[in-house]
Amino acid sequence: MELMRLEVEIRTPGEHGPLESTVDDHWFKLIFDTILMSLESTDPGEHGPLESTVDDHWLMIWQEQVSVVVMLSNFTEDNKEKCYQYWPIKGKVRVEGSISVRLLQEKKYAFYTLRKIKLEQKTTATSRLVCHFQFTMWSDSEIPYPSELVQFYRSVKRAQDACPSSPVLVHCSEGGGRTGTFIALDKLHRAGQRAGRVNVTKCLVEMCEQRMNMVENMEQYILLYHTLKESFHRNVYPIRKEKLSTILTEEMQKPDKENYLRKQFCELMCVRPVYDDLINETGYRNIQLNLMPTVLPDEEFRVTFPSGERRTRNDFYNTVFLSTITEYNGLIVAPYPADNTAEDLIRLMMRQKSRVLVTMHPLIELHSTVLWYPDKSSELSQYKIYREASGFLTSDIQRVTIRIESTKRSEVHRVHVYEILSWSTKNIIPRDTKLATTVIKEARQTREEEGGGPITVMSYDGASGCGVFIALYNAMEQLSMDGAVDLFSIVHDIHIRLPRMMSTMDEYEFCYQAIAELYTQ
Fold first, then answer.
1. Is 172 annotated in the active site?
2. Which residue among the candidates 172, 203, 466, 511 is catalytic per the annotation?
């Protein structure tokens, strides 16, 4: 009964209509390369393309004129080989029978990789381009987050819609559960857009008539429902950077009820998750360790110390991982430390190899600052901290380098601190957009120069100001990668991990203004 209730509730906004068949659509042609693979394997459910059948794999892609390949597995999972890498590294050419395969481009995002592959048929002297999408956050033993799968699906859908007459090849390691779930998502999303309603059960029954075990377990079935719901709420499209300024100017001149950006933000607030106390249980248990206990971490995303690292201390520090466009868990968000958690901040920076720290508000009024951020030097339990360098990027941004030495582990770690001096806690947004974009550019560059590691972002409560920084950081990175930005999805992903961030239209509008001004300079 519960599943039937869910089925009725899934609707696309503003549309209603009869249920319809979702399997016999002419535009979709599924090719199961794993059927070929299973003929060569003693365990047909273990492998995707094998080294011995790669030539058959590419021959099929050429023969069926495939333009998009969707790969839903990694090469190895749980120490087991799941799929052979059937394309060459960049700069090399792989010859499979009469077909040569060349990797032209590879772009790595936080949870998927996009490749452009060129195929050449030697006998006919013809060539084609194939878009290869590999989702890297879905294994046999884990289920991805719906928001991440939706972002991946939307990227695939844009490539698929660009070549609507070409078939799509979808595969995982077995050609069953993950493959079937993704195909069902695609079919049901398109059916829902047309009719306003979807019939999940009917779709899966029809798919299983073509191939068994298309959705293998309850976890995948539930994932399909959640992902469909996400896909219908995200009826937004990336804005090209050259159009940002024009669109922003036009929309902000319209009345609120007609303003597209305000409608976006209102929808964001409607779909923002509300977590119960059980999800923040550890945070409530350790509420005395928070300087301002208004923002508590979701246990699933909380940064934890390595096992056995804190035998003499409570295993809690109010920090949460967030992803950048290109790196999973590439950001750490934290509140300013209290006196009794200053040591934990230092330990966090060392253990997570975070070499860049950005503070949203001035540190001078905070009592714990002198413990971990000294003018010259300080000692904090097992750590000795020294200020190595200090200077100003602008009159509003100070850059300081501190050196941390662990007396127990004989380790040395340097952190570059960017302190925003002019952003008062009374203000939701900074006084100008250039301040925010400048500190983001510097933080990104320093991180790259220092060899990576997550950037740690802090404010008084771990939310105020941090949301603007993270949304703008990801927007700038997405524009650099793709030449377009989807701020709605960026902010929605932030809300999934910390719903208290980016909770005002002023913050949302500020991010749009900042990136628009950045690309009109």
1. yes
2. 172
